[in-house]
Amino acid sequence: MRPRAPSMHNRLMPHEFSTSYLKDAIALLRYYKKLAERAMSQTPDDALFAVPDPESNCIAIIVKHLSGNMRSRWTDFLATDGEKPDRNRDSEFLSPPSTRTELLSLWDSGWNCLFSALDSLTESDLARQVTIRGEPHSVLQAINRQLAHYPYHVGQIVFLARHYSGGCWTALTVPRGQSVAFNASMAARQAPPR
Question: What is the pTM of this model?
Fold first, then answer.
């Protein structure tokens, strides 16, 4: 196999063939977590709390909401409803954390709940039933629900981070104008050795 072209290889989301749903779902969630972290690392501190208009959320509020959702959905995942009685979803959209350190601590605590729950599952657990707001879901459905929800908010974080970074942005995926070169490097990696 040819060596990878380091400047064009997408090191953030290496593709690994898998027939394990859990392995793939966890890898995708880790990818989106890292994507948001890379975006937030390029965001000036004050921009984490900036809103583009009065009806929009800032990055810090989105992080607070994601963390609240993750804590509620993934704590005692197999044993209790995913909407915990002590969760106040509306409060997640008020009073964001006040510093980058607090924001990242909240971020990490939510993801830790998620990964602790998922790492404890086996493929046979996917058919088990859990509830979210009283509605029955298979474990697979509950994971898929969050695989749609979390990347939606990660996209918002990336959009806001890019907006507020000004001209100091480093692309998180394939940079503009480099798709042809990236595709060629990926094809070269797949070509059999001669």
Answer: 0.86
Contact 25, 143 (CB under 8 A): yes
How is residue 161 annotated by DSSP? H
**Nearest 5°: phi and psi at 53?**
-160, 165
What domains are defined for the chain?
21-190 (1.20.120.450)
DSSP 18: -
Q: Measured over all CA atoms, what is the biggest interatomic distance in the chain, rounded to whole angstroms?
A: 62
Q: Which of 89, 69, 48, 45 is nearest to 146 (CA)?
A: 69
Vertex 35: Cα angle to 31 and 41 (nearest 5): 140
What are 167's two structure tokens?
């001209």
Between CA 134 and CA 155 the distance in angstroms is 28
Q: Are 123 and 20 in contact (CB under 8 A)?
A: yes
Q: Residues of the chain whose pLDDT is less than 50? A: 1-10
Q: Tell me which residue has tokens 């509020």.
A: 61
What are the pLDDT digits (tens) for 76-111?
Answer: 999 999 999 999 999 999 999 999 999 999 999 999
pLDDT for res 98: 93
What tokens does 11 get?
């090191």
